[in-house]
């Protein structure tokens, strides 16, 4: 049974009637442009065919009542006077309700059933998917127009200020605005977007190292602070404003760590724009090379890779059908992403799984992903 059917049937079981609509919002994988979003730079993610689904019906109370099929738990909260006092998953829904109210939206209550197949904590943005599905639910019951950039900012505010995770805008923006068959070039300063097609006869494969690191949040915040220090050094609002030439002309006066952090961000912005051009031309070889360079830069200069991620990327690159591979997301564990010749994707997945297991003793999870639409509502 599809997840859509599962949430719809779950709704009937929980509430004794049919849902009025079903919304979904996807997870994402980033092809290139890593740790650039909070530097006002460029990212090139795609929405994947794994999502959070909510079947729902507006109610006449100022309340949200939601049952999670994944956690087998029902929570209920009043929209007047939201407080942080529930299971972690429910705080994402409340955070979105809170952020919408802070932005001046008047909310209508609803009953819903939620389920998802974005692996939690793997770096595929299950939290952004839950936030955007919740935003889609509130927008649908009140018939607000869907403006991806506005809603993405609201999701990010929920995550930053309610959940307390200091993320950039990439995950919420792609979950709000993704398009089937395409990646999205996002300018994280203006939130302008451009659709770019995946190169013909290629597929994107997500390679989960099955390792998770603690302290990701503190390392992430440390990188952000280092980037801000570098921007101050160059006298600009964000590293986005420094060109490779400007960087090179002053590089000798920077301390070693700041120099390497800045070099990653500045060159990664360039690579991301070049990658979008390569995709526009259908040039899988060039896109693959840029992904490989991105990984080296993330590993050596930005220092957010891990032994397992480096092994996974090396295992992927050993396979003939692979154009390129890199770690994706915040790093320190989680997933790598590879661009692979479509016809050979299944053989590639089994070969990489076997080789990664041989080297590390860990069984990875591997997902061949289709680029899907961003958040949607249907009946
Ligand atoms: C996490 C954050 C994003 C982005 C990436 C790194 O996924 O949520 O905003 O900063 O890390 O590119």
Could you explain the architecture of this structure?
The protein is of the alpha+beta class and 379 residues long. The chain has a domain at 3-197: Ribosomal Protein S5, domain 2 (2-Layer Sandwich). Helices cover 43% and strands 22% of the residues. The protein has 11 helices and 13 strands. The strands form 3 sheets. The chain has a 6-stranded mixed beta sheet, sandwiched between helices. A 4-stranded antiparallel beta sheet has the order 10-11-9-12. A hairpin with a 4-residue loop joins strand 4 (63-68) and strand 5. Helix 2 (88-102) crosses helix 3, helix 3 (126-141) crosses helix 4 and helix 10 (307-317) packs across helix 11. The chain starts with a helix and ends with a strand. Bound molecules: alpha-D-galactopyranose. Alpha-D-galactopyranose (GLA) binds at residues 34-35, 37-38, 167-168, 170-171, 329-330. Alpha-D-galactopyranose binds at residues 34-35, 37-38, 167-168, 170-171, 329-330.
Q: Radius of gyration over alpha carbons?
A: 21 Å
Report the sheet with the most strands, covering strand number, pairing sense and barrel closure. Answer: 6 strands, mixed
Order of helices and strands: HEEEEEHEHHHEEEHHHHHEEHEE
Helix percentage: 40-55%
What is this structure, in a nutshell?
The protein is of the alpha+beta class. Helices cover 43% and strands 22% of the residues. The site of alpha-D-galactopyranose has 10 residues, from helix 5.
């Amino acid at each position: 049974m599809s997840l859509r059917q599962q949430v719809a049937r779950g709704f009937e079981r929980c509430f004794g009637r049919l849902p009025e609509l079903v919304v979904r919002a996807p997870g994402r994988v980033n092809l290139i442009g890593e740790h650039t979003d909070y530097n006002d730079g460029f990212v090139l993610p795609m929405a994947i065919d794994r999502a959070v689904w909510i079947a729902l019906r507006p109610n006449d109370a100022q309340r949200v009542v939601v049952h999670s099929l994944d956690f087998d738990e029902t929570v209920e909260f009043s929209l007047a006077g939201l407080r942080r006092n529930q299971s972690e998953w429910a705080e994402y829904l409340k955070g979105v309700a809170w952020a919408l109210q802070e932005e001046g939206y008047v909310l209508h209550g609803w009953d819903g059933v939620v389920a998802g197949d974005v692996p939690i904590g793997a770096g595929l943005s299950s939290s952004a998917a839950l936030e955007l599905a919740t935003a889609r639910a509130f927008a649908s019951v009140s018939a607000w127009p869907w403006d991806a950039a506005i809603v993405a900012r609201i999701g990010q505010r929920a995550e930053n200020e309610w959940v307390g995770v200091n993320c950039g805008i990439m995950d919420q923006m792609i979950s709000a605005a993704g398009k089937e068959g395409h990646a999205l070039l996002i300018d994280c300063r203006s939130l302008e977007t451009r659709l770019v097609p995946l190169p013909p006869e290629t597929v994107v494969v997500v390679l989960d190292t099955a390792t998770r690191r603690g302290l990701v949040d503190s390392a992430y915040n440390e990188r952000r602070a280092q980037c801000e220090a570098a921007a101050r050094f160059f006298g600009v609002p964000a590293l986005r404003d420094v060109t490779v030439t400007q960087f090179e002309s002053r590089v000798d006066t920077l301390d070693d760590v700041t120099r390497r952090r800045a070099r990653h961000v500045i060159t990664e912005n360039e690579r991301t724009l070049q990658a979008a051009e390569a995709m526009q031309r259908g040039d899988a070889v060039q896109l693959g090379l840029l992904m490989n360079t991105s990984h080296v830069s993330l590993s050596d200069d930005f220092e957010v890779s891990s032994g397992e991620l480096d092994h996974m990327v090396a295992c992927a690159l050993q396979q003939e059908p692979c154009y390129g591979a890199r770690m994706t997301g915040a790093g320190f564990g989680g997933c790598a992403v590879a661009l692979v010749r479509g016809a050979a994707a299944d053989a590639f997945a089994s070969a990489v799984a076997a080789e990664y297991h041989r080297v590390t003793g860990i069984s990875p999870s591997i997902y061949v992903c289709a680029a899907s639409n961003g958040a949607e509502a249907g009946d």
